[in-house]
Amino acid sequence: MFNLFSKTILSIKRNGINDTVKKVLSYQRRKLLSYKIDTLFYDSEYQEDLKFFNYKPRVKAIAFYLPQFHTIPENDGWWGKGFTEWKNTSKAKPMFKEHYQPREPHNDFGYYNLLNIETLKKQVQLAKEHGIYGFCYYLYWFSGKRLLEKPLDLFLDHPEIEINFCLCWANENWTRNWDGLENEILIRQSYSDKDPYRFIEDIQKYINDKRYIKIDGKPVILVYNPGNIPDVKNVFIKWKNHAVEIGIGEIKIWVCKTFGYTPKNLHIEDIVDGLVEFPPHSIPPVMAKKINLAKKNANIYDYKEVVTEIKREFRYNKKKICRSSDVIPLYRTCMMGWDSAARKKNKWSTYAGFSLRYYFDWVSLINNEALYTNKEVFFINAWNEWAEGTYLEPDKKYGYANINTLSKAIFGFSFNNMLN
Fold this sequence. Notes:
Layout: H1 2-36, E1 60-65, H2 73-79, H3 85-91, H4 117-129, E2 132-142, E3 145-147, H5 150-156, E4 164-169, E5 174-176, E6 181-187, H6 195-207, E7 214-215, E8 218-223, H7 232-245, E9 252-257, H8 263-266, E10 274-277, E11 289-293, E12 296-302, H9 303-316, H10 318-323, E13 330-331, E14 333-335, E15 348-352, H11 356-372, E16 377-381, E17 384-385, E18 390-391, H12 401-411
Parallel strand pairs: 1-2, 1-16, 2-4, 4-8, 8-9, 9-10, 10-13, 12-15, 14-16
Antiparallel strand pairs: 2-3, 5-6, 7-8, 11-12, 17-18
Helix pairs in contact: 6-7, 9-11, 11-12
């Protein structure tokens, strides 16, 4: 300790305080990369597809579903011809030792195109075999203009594909944030006065489908970022009233817990019907390890620490957990090893140290809570967020480990049960 202190004083005399601080920080970063990050290895193992045909899930598990696996003219113009989410995924590189990049889809699915009906059928078959109740499709709607709508419309045109679904309005501007240019808007949400009526009319065809998810007999509509909507309470009132006027009937509006927004701080507790967790938003504030890699900022979190905090919350706040929310029900969501390094050149984050065992514990907690509080459903982020590192679909390195682990938790098996 004395030797370190002496070296610090000597460095200040020779180089000044600013240069000394820079050297110390550089040293700390090197240590972090060589020691701390090395311990955050991806704790999984390759698994073949386990079969769960004869088992019935105790709770309805719904997976968020990304449709950006087909080309559209807008993306061709913004990002280059032939752009899909696979472009981001395939170009990713490991940024530190044990960083699991790139993520490659399993040969059973490959780099699929969501305009191929056989791909949709294969996805649904896998989901149903593993006890997943339905998909929550992201809806990209801009005052009547739709983007990435074709996979959902293709699904709608094939009623023989039997899986439940609902919609989540991904109501954000599209920007060039993947290039680090967050201020350059590609397509904007305008939130015009006519939008509330047009929105309900435009989604009526989906809600009227017999596969659309209903809770208490009412179709559920999710909103990703309610805080972005001007006069959000009035908008939701118009949604509900207009749904009745055009023959849909009563609807339920669930808002996602994102960017610090809640029904309480948005003053919409009396109009919304549910709050949905959306990790990595609003999960326990485990300290990030802020590092600089080739002058690019990054936040490295420990997945195990996050799940440990969630388990601690469940253990010590049982009354609060069972109550779920002061006014409206809270619907839980889990995630896998979330990692935005494939999408962003700078300011990316990763929940390193993903662990199948901890993931199993997380799913088991929220599954059991939903079961015992009669909430019916919980969510998974996500079915196919390949460029964010959280997906149930199989990959080349670990096979079907993610979806097998989910199924064991929702069917009530032990973590080590391989159904032999």
